[in-house]
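Translate structure to sequence.
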């Protein structure tokens, strides 16, 4: 028997990790050889029994490690630092298992449980579509670990750390643990939003592990982590855009047809805000340049010990990602409010609001008007400028990458191009409600939602906005860094 020096729990003699706290145990002295009869009995064990025992031990270690890195990361990182495990071992025995939790839970949630959507009730995606999403999310998620680890290793010298890919891989793999565990919440789609909190905690775990695993000074851990966070965000965005290509839209049923030319264009367009190859290349080059400048600024800030300067540099890096290589000042929400029509058909505007939100160098402005017809009919019209977060456009409106036409007794849903602009419409015949949306200049989203109104009126409402004027404003506020 052996005792854990952290919590005092008694463990089996051959245990490497404490069964209570997950802490590393000292290697126990080898016991004396068993009597011949016992030794013979042990040697006669079947291969299946040996394999089962090995799998059980591996599962125990995984559970202990996941619990320890989540509940006591400060104590667990030094233990991980001394382990000789290589990326291949960690990938097979740890990443491959935990990374599957979220995709599997999401598959169950979206195909069996479903999600409640206004005007449509509870909807689900088909099993085949769900499997496609599961596989795509899982494979791309595992690849993201390798990508972020590779960049963590490459950046180590920049922050006075030591290049060591094995250590970098362990750092990223184990830091992802809280987010992976929280992936089980996806089994109830609406609870999946809570996984965001776990993702934020994973960033904290990453921050604690950077100085231990990469041997960088503690004062440089914050800017180092900030850069890795930006990298992780980019990886996540590309993952989301790529996964969207395999995800049918849950609606009235039927099948959706992806544009054969859309996969590369959708990812590139989502990241840069344009589908023009030459322009996208220019924006990616500008983004890389801005990221390089931000890295240099964070390094300089870390040397000066000025946390405010390091935070500002991290914000610049974030802005480079969201702005696709150029700072974008969104159109003032007051100007967007002025574009809301006073009335549409028999509907009069009863209120108009506007706002602007900014975070980490990214910004978005919007205006919203509410309309009534004097009876039960109502319309909400929204104009949003996502120029400062154009990288999120593909995720915010996945239908912009698709062409579809579905119709049932209860309603119809369509998506495609209208006058060269991506559009989406859906209507519920039973509730006499629906929505119509258009993306203008790959920057502005105009959306009309209504109750007790027909689709023709919703389209008229959107067209009442000066779309041509918005088209001419697609480059307003954009400037290279």
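Result:
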């Amino acid at each position: 028997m052996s005792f854990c020096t952290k919590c005092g729990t008694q463990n089996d003699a051959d245990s490497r990790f404490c069964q209570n706290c997950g802490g590393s145990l000292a290697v126990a002295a080898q016991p004396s050889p068993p009597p011949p009869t016992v030794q013979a009995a042990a040697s006669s064990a079947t291969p299946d029994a040996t394999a089962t025992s090995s799998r059980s031990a591996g599962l125990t270690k995984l559970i202990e490690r996941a619990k320890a890195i989540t509940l006591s990361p400060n104590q667990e990182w030094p233990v991980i630092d001394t382990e000789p495990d290589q990326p291949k071992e960690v990938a097979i025995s740890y990443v491959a298992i935990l990374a599957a939790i979220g995709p599997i839970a999401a598959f169950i949630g979206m195909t069996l449980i479903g999600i409640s959507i206004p005007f449509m009730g509870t909807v689900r995606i088909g099993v085949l579509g769900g499997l496609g999403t599961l596989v795509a999310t899982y494979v791309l998620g595992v690849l993201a670990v390798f990508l972020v680890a590779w960049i963590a290793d490459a950046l180590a010298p920049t922050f006075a750390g030591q290049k060591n890919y094995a250590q970098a891989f362990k750092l990223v793999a184990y830091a992802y643990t809280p987010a992976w565990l929280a992936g089980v919440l996806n089994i109830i789609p609406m609870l999946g939003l809570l996984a965001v909190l776990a993702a934020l905690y994973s960033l904290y775990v990453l921050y604690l592990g950077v100085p231990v695993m990469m041997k960088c000074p503690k004062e440089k851990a914050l800017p180092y982590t900030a850069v890795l966070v930006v990298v992780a965000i980019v990886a996540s965005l590309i993952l989301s855009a790529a996964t969207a290509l395999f995800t049918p839209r849950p609606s009235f049923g039927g099948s959706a047809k992806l544009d054969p030319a859309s996969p590369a264009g959708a990812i590139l367009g989502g990241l840069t805000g344009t589908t023009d190859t030459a322009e996208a290349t220019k924006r990616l080059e500008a983004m890389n340049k801005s990221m390089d400048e931000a890295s240099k600024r964070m390094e300089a800030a870390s040397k000066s010990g000025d946390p405010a300067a390091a935070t500002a540099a991290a914000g610049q890096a974030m802005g480079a990602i969201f702005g696709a290589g150029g700072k974008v000042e969104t159109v003032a929400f007051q100007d967007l409010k002025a574009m809301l029509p006073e009335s549409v058909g028999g509907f009069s505007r009863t209120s108009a609001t506007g706002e602007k939100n900014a975070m980490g160098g990214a910004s978005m402005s919007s205006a919203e008007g509410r309309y009534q017809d004097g009876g039960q009919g109502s319309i909400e019209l929204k104009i949003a400028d996502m120029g400062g977060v154009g990288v999120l456009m593909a995720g915010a409106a996945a239908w912009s990458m698709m062409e579809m036409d579905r119709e049932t007794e209860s309603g119809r849903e369509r998506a495609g191009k209208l006058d060269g602009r991506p559009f989406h419409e859906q209507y519920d015949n039973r509730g006499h409600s629906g929505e119509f949306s258009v993306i203008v200049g790959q920057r502005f989203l105009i959306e009309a939602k209504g109750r007790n109104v027909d689709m023709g009126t919703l389209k008229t409402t959107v067209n009442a906005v000066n779309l041509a004027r918005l088209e001419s404003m697609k480059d307003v506020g954009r400037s290279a860094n």
